[in-house]
Amino acid sequence: MKATRTLAAVVAASALLGGCASQSSQPSYANDGYRSGYDNTAATGYGTIESIQTTTADGRTSGAGAIVGGLVGALAGNQVGSGGGRTAATVAGGVAGAAIGNRVEANRGAEGQQAYAVNVRLDNGEYRTIVQDNVYDLRVGNRVRIVDGRVYRY
């Protein structure tokens, strides 16, 4: 009975905190006149690079750190007290562990890493900003192709 309640509390805390996780893996940045990031309606496009700017990624997380931290915290909290106090310690440990796990993931992730905002003028007249981790051989004025949210030389 106690194990069932403890497991239910851990699952509920994990689901609650997992629902708060960001689903986007690619940062987007506002830029005058440019649309940012990946667009499902235009997965492929051709154009010319207008500019390339160095920026930093914003450290979004997938939620995995929060889930793992929540589970570890709940297991640690379950070792404290007995009865209703143990249940409260399990829930509190899960919440604290999830918060710590999320922060650890953000610190180990993309936060502060260098990224490149590639501003592209498409052949149809639209402007797009694609943020990616490298630019390899891309230069201003290159003809490029945008495929699945990345810029490649054409």
UniProtKB/TrEMBL annotation:
Q: Alphabetically list the UniProt keywords.
A: Membrane, Signal
Its principal location?
A: membrane
| Range of residues in the leader sequence | 1-30
Task: Give the UniProt subcellular location, in the record's own words.
Answer: Membrane
Q: Which InterPro entries match?
A: Bact_OM_lipoprot/Surf_antigen, Gly_zipper_2TM_dom
Keyword Membrane attributed: yes
Q: Which residues form the Glycine zipper 2TM domain?
A: 64-104
Q: Does Disulfide bond show up as a keyword for this record?
A: no
What name goes with this protein? Answer: Glycine zipper 2TM domain-containing protein
